Every structure is written in C-alpha cells, then in structure tokens.
Amino acid sequence: MEDVPVVETIVVLGGMINPLGIHSERVEVTDAADRLIDAVRLYRNGKAKFILFSGGSGLLFSPELKEAERAKRILLDLGIPESRILLEDQSRNTFENAKFSKEKLLLQKRETSLLVTSAFHMPRAKACFEKQGVAVFAYPTDYRALNLNASAFDLWVPSLVYWELSTIATKEWIGIWAYRFKAYMD
C-alpha cells in the first residue's frame, strides 16, 4: 500500500450490492464486495479524506433502490464518519459512474482520486473517467484470476466458477467494444 498516493477522495464504483436481497434490514453484498472493503482499508490507512460511492439503481422497475444508500449503511457500520461519505446515486452504468462522479468531485473541488473497482472492470472504468477529464489513480481489487499453482487435476475439473469467469470476461469485452463505439471511452 506504500505505492498508493495520498489523494483527497476514494471513488468506489457500485456493482457489489444485491438490490433485490430478501433482508430489508440488512444489506446483502455480492462477490465484488472487495471494492468496498478495500476502500475502507485505503481510508483507514490515510490514503484519502473522503469516500465517494458511485451507484444508483440498475433496475428497470425499481429505480428507488439506490445502491449508494445501501453502501452508506455499510460504511457507517464499519465506522466511517458520515461527514466523510459522499454519495452519487444517479448512475446506472460505468459511463454514468464517471459522468456523475465528475460532477460530485467538481462540487467538492477534488483533484486526483483513487478509483476502486474490480480488476476485470478497471480498464473500462478508468477509460470512462479519463474521457470525462477526471484524473484517477487505479486501485484494482476483486481479482478473479486462478491460482495456476493448483494441481493440474483441480484446474481441469469442470466447474461453474470457470463458466462464471468466462461470462464476466465476455461481458467486459462487449462493454469495452460498445463503449468505444458510443465514444464513452477512447
């Protein structure tokens, strides 16, 4: 963590909270929860004074279920002071994360920020922020790489994990292509 610069704000991208969780009194996270965990670690290690969580509702028929509001509950439970939490709750995708986070950062007069998202998502996310003119230092998390030191047998046994990894990679490549086509990124 020594090579991570000290900045004003950590920007955490959504995509880690189950918006349709059955427990309304609890916030249910997905396997991308490392995004929030690492943001808290960075904050506690003095890498930034603020955490900006960027995530609205990606749901077509339940736009009131904002991921940022649920993330705030977790951050408060983890001891982050409310005065240090900034929310962007309008975005529905990575392009909008960058666009609406830029507005929040400009209002707060923030310069360079740490961008925290899953490693597989970082190239597209960073490109979107740069296209918006937002200077970010990438802090990828939630690595999905396989341990190649595992036994050959374990690597060749069919598993849904491999199917999930290939689905994530395919979705991200399609996202990169679509975002370049729409000029959301260079």
From TrEMBL:
Q: Which residues form the DUF218 domain?
A: 9-175
Task: Kindly state one GO CC term assigned in the UniProt record.
Answer: plasma membrane
Q: Where are the transmembrane segments?
A: none
> Which GO BP terms sit in this record?
Gram-negative-bacterium-type cell wall biogenesis; peptidoglycan metabolic process
Q: Which CDD domains match?
A: YdcF-like (cd06259)
Instruction: Supply the name of the protein.
Output: DUF218 domain-containing protein
Q: Whose protein is this, by species? A: Leptospira ryugenii
